[in-house]
Amino acid sequence: MQLFNLIKSEKAYWLVDQVKMEGESEEDYKEAFTKILSAYEEEQIGYLSLLIDEAFESWLLARGFRKISSIMEYTKQLDDEMELEEDLLFYSLAEGFMTDAEFSAAYELCRTGTANKNIHQPIEQVMASIASELGDKWRSHCYSFFADNKLVGISIPHIEMGTQDEGRMFYFGVVPDMRGQGLGAKLHKLTLELMKKMQANYYVGSTDESNKHMINIFKKNGCTLRDKKGIYQIEK
Question: Where does the N-acetyltransferase domain start and stop, copy by copy (predicted)?
Answer without folding.
Answer: 88-236
